[in-house]
Amino acid sequence: TPADAEQLAATSIRRTPDHLLRLLDQLGAAGWPLDAVELPAFRPVIDRFGAHLRQCGFRIFADADREALARAEAQPRQLGNLLISGFHGGHWALWHLLRAAVATAQHANISLQYPRDEAADLDAAWIGSWEEAFGEATTAETNTPPQHGTRKYFFLVGTDAQEQAQAITATALSFLANEGCSRLGIVFPAAGALSRLVGSSLTRLGIPHQDAMGQRLPGMFETASFMAWMELQRTARLNALLHFLHTLEVDHVLFADIARDRAEKALRNALSDLAIDDLALLAAACGQRQGEGEFVRDLIAAIQFLPNRGTLSEFLRATSAGFEQMQWHERWREIESRAGWAESLNASFSRTLYLRWLSEIASSVRITRDAAGSHPYARVQILTAAQAEDQSWSHLILAGLNEGSWPAGGRGDFLPTSQIDAFNSSVQKLNRTAMRRGRQGEGHVAIREGKALFLGGQQQRQLARAQFSSLTESASIAVVLSASLIQEAAPERISNPSEFFSSLYHQQHGVPVSQSGMRALRETTSRWLRDSQLHSPDDLPSTVDIEQTAIAYAARRDSGPSGEYDFALRAAPNEIKPLSVSEVEALLKSPALVWMKRFLGVEGTEDVTYAWNSTVGRWTHDWLASISGMSNAFTPLPDAGEIAHRISAASERKRREVLGLCQTVRKPLPDWWQSGWENALCLARSLGEILSTAEGWRWAVTEWKLDAQPIAVTDDRT
Asked: Which of 230, 224, 271, 299 is nearest to 609 (CA)?
């Protein structure tokens, strides 16, 4: 039904709003309303979104650009001379903004790029629209001498990003040794690990270069404590709380009444006893215990949690209180400066949506460069494809050409396949409707006033091909294409080369590049690297800690007598304390972990998310202990009926205890908890039945310490 379709559409937008927002931006830039595309299920949400925009005084970029153009044409020209250069058919989203800039200048020169074969329609419409607005364009004369000789192409394949970076660095060194190398561009699809590795290698070798992408330096929001606070607000569970507490200083105001390790121990015990990972419930359980439990309850109560639902103003007030408690004054001032419009939005929404918004605006990453990478006029330039476009190079290295990197893979969409096909058809109709014959006659294509071309997926691929072709043709001497053999996220999988790598390889060698061909290229690259005698990261000076790690690694694989590296003592201790039954069981599975815990006091952090097994064991132990009345002395073993009765009574007390805690915090008892409790009761009864069949010995005790006095047994076994 239409109502169900609208509900599903609203759910999809809530989960992934970026896709629809990108569609609205594209339609707005093209000057078309949403009615131009068949999306009836999404119109109610979009209408409400538009109402909220108007309520807050916001506009999308395209509408703001059109308003700027209208104001510029109605006002006196404020600029003298203006030069516009570097724009082509891929910049239709900036069409009205550029027109507004021209309208503010007394004299404007517009440099247009000759249409590229791969995007001829887009570029021709771009040029024709400028000519329609400002008159016929003239052909510029160039003073660039014609290039002679044949451009050479090389293909490099590294096993991973590390080896690919070494190959790129070695290639750059070989090019720089060539007298004809006037400008060397190293182009990456985007800033990432590969660009950082190449920049670090050039810096280590002392090669001046300009790193146009730079290195991302985290700021005040990219800290462990803030990210842990955000995660705690998303999910109020024990793991998130403990991680948050561990990111704070030991002398933080939250730990004024209780130490962090004591709080962690009390909370873990409460979770093991209840098996419900809910901080409100755990706090209530700790509050009923004397001593540390009360402090833990106060600790959780002191943390400012955001409400489950509210308006933006209500969420911001709660955030302000939480930041004040954490003494994050600078962080709050930054958030407050970006939310001055909050009072205009009176819509109520969930905490999850607010935290998503907060995580997007709470960004303080800045770009930095080291001294060796801050030379704008250096011969070596590290940049992206968009930055390298429309420049001249003697040598060019196109790096990271693996599938999905360049051209970028599909960003996905929330539309089903049938609607995507219909949408693509609508896009073509939109573009044809926007175009018209220009005033210069047949063959002159221009865009109607107030409109622009819609750059859909097909147009984006055309622009990517045109960009790659322009880059390869901008190098006069040599072009190098590099890729990795394996996928970084899944090293066991082969990474296919990109479409650009494969097509250019086929063009140069006449055969397609296969996986065996990629392995052969990798062997050739590796052999060339060994012969180049470039210092490998493995050859760097080692530290004492690194050498000690290597010593321990070799000692554990030595077939000689066991030593301290094999989880053994150098000499036998004077006394070995007995192990518990649980430790003996763990000793058979993982002796190293038990040894480190017993003799070094080191143990791994338990995953408290899945505490159900330990909780069932604890409940079963306590319910069976009720058979002997929790006494530390031997008592007569009751009959089978009494054993079952005592186990049932103990289990019912536990159920009523947890039910009372849930009622205290006004939360229902989970169905899965009731089912788990019944399974634990069934297990305890089964063990009780087995215990009742014991013959010849009718005495029982809850626990008997191994270092206790021996049991005195008479001839009549009393």
From this structure: 271
Whether 559 and 510 map to the same domain: the answer is no
Spatial separation of the C-alpha atoms in residues 21 and 53, rounded to whole Å: 13
**Number of structural domains, the chain?**
6
Report the distance separating Cα 605 and Cα 613, nearest Å: 16
The rounded distance, in Å, linking the Cα atoms of 589 and 594 is 9
Q: How many DSSP H helices and E strands does the chain contain?
A: 27, 16
> Which residues of the chain fall below pLDDT 70?
34-38, 142-149, 257, 290-292, 409-444, 533-542, 604-611, 630-632, 704-718
Within a domain: residue 204?
yes
Length of the chain: 718
3-state helix, strand, coil in the chain (%, to 5): 55, 10, 35
Q: Is residue 515 classed as helix, strand or coil in its secondary structure?
A: helix
Phi, psi of 186 (to 5 degrees): -110, 110
Residue pair 479/396 in contact by the 8 Å Cβ criterion: yes
Q: In this structure, are 478 and 414 located in the same domain?
A: yes
**Of 579, 609, 601, 577, which Cα lies nearest the Cα of 261?**
601
Question: Do 241 and 347 have their domain in common?
Answer: yes
Nearest Cα neighbor of 211 from 187, 193, 189 is 187
**CA distance readout (Å), 514 to 405, 406, 480, 611:** 18, 18, 19, 49
506 φψ region: left (φ > 0), alpha (ψ -120 to 50), beta (else): alpha
Q: Scanning the structure block, which residue is given the tokens 């989960």?
A: 15
| Residues 591 and 641 grouped into a single domain | no
**Which residue's structure tokens are 């763990």?**
586
Q: What's the whole-model pTM score? A: 0.77
**Residues 691/627, Cβ–Cβ less than 8 Å:** yes
Residue 701, classified by CB atoms within 10 Å of its CB into exposed (0-12), middle (13-18) or buried (19+), is middle
Does residue 189 contact residue 406 with C-beta atoms inside 8 Å? yes
Nearest to 585 by CA among 594, 598, 577, 576: 594
- The whole domain housing 25 covers 2-58
For residue 561, being part of any structural domain is answered with: yes
Domain co-membership, 387 together with 518: yes
450: alpha, beta or left, given left = phi > 0 and alpha = psi -120 to 50? left
Residue 101 and residue 84: Cα distance in Å, rounded? 9
CB-count burial class (<10 Å; 0-12, 13-18, 19+) for 665: middle
Helices (H), 235-311: 238-247, 260-274, 279-287, 292-302
**Residue 592, in any domain of the structure:** yes
Which residues fall within 8 angstroms of residue 670, CB to CB, at 6 or more apart?
276
Q: What are the tokens at 682?
A: 């069934």
Say how far apart CA 639 and CA 642 lie, in whole Å: 5
Q: Based on the domain organization, do 189 and 112 belong to the same domain? A: no
Helices 457-474, 417-434: axis angle to 10 degrees equals: 70
Q: What is the pLDDT of residues 58-89, one digit of tens each?
A: 888 888 999 999 999 999 998 899 999 989 98
For 380, the token pair is 């070596």
Domain boundary, last residue among 33, 58, 83: 58
420 with 523, same domain? yes
Q: Is residue 367 part of a domain?
A: no
Q: Give yes or no for a contact between 499 and 172, defined as CB atoms under 8 angstroms apart.
A: no
User: 244 and 160 in one domain?
Assistant: no
- Check residue 94 and report its DSSP letter: G
CB 86 within 8 A of CB 120: no
Query: Model confidence over 186-212: pLDDT tens digits?
Result: 999 999 899 999 999 999 999 999 999
